[in-house]
Amino acid sequence: MFFRKKFDTNAVYDWLIVGLGNPGKRYEFTRHNAGFLCLDYFADAQKIKVDRLKFKSLLGEARLSGKRCLLMKPQTFMNLSGEAVRDAAQFYKIDPAHILVLFDDISLDPGRMRIRRKGTDGGHKGIKSIIYHLGADDFPRIKIGVGAKPHEDYDLADWVTSPFSKEDLKTLRTVAEHCADAIELIVNDEIDEAMSRYNS
After folding, report:
1. When you count CB atoms within 10 A of the terminal residue's CB, does the N or C end of the chain come out lower?
2. Active site residues
3. Structural contact between residues 145 and 113, judged by C-beta atoms closer than 8 angstroms
4. Which of 131, 69, 59 is nearest to 94 (CA)?
5. In whole angstroms, what is the distance from residue 99 CA to residue 14 CA?
6. Tens-digit pLDDT profile for residues 135-178
């Protein structure tokens, strides 16, 4: 039987980098999983596997600019993402200012992204859960555009759990490349540069 290697509980991490989404094949290429998809792209580019189980999440580890970073994909489903983030942050004593969250944003068109130092949940239930469980909203985040509902009566839950079109997936790849670059800049304390380059 195959067992995943346990994660190092004695490590000290400088950053927690979280991609938000829903677990399972059903949701893999849906709009709500933009955070997962962009974190996966970053991990693949770094030749890192995000596959170790802890804190109700899949975890991986990266070293960027001499800093040790914990990569996280919560497996709690979106609305409970904060449970996983809180548990890891408390265990490894990571300050909210060093928790970077990647997530989907319906107010941005596909192909756009926006970086913020902090802020409200903006109606996003995953971010709302993280703010609630951390008791803080001063964590940086990268918003990934997935487009607005096609019409006002369209159910929001149905929209964000619907799959990207092939064209939008191609566009998302470019955004994922920009996200990967922005992650490195932010971890290197260059968030102003990241915002200047990629906020649109």
Report:
1. N
2. 32
3. yes
4. 69
5. 9
6. 999 999 999 999 999 888 899 999 999 999 999 999 999 999 99
| Domain positions in the chain | 15-198
Domain 15-198 belongs in CATH node 3.40.50.720: no
Measured CA to CA, the distance from residue 33 to residue 104 in angstroms comes to: 7
With beta carbons less than 8 A apart as the criterion, state whether 74 and 81 touch.
Answer: yes
pTM of the model as a whole: 0.94
Q: 186: Cβ–Cβ under 8 A, 6 or more apart, which residues?
A: 100, 115, 140, 194
Per-residue DSSP letters for the chain? ---PPPP-TT---SEEEEE----SGGGTTBGGGHHHHHHHHHHHHTT----EEETTEEEEEEEETTEEEEEEEE-S-GGGHHHHHHHHHHHHT--GGGEEEEEEETTS-TT-EEEESS---TT-HHHHHHHHHHT-----EEEEE----SSTTS-HHHHHTSBPPHHHHHHHHHHHHHHHHHHHHHHTT-HHHHHHHHB-
d(CA 18, CA 72) in angstroms, rounded, equals: 5
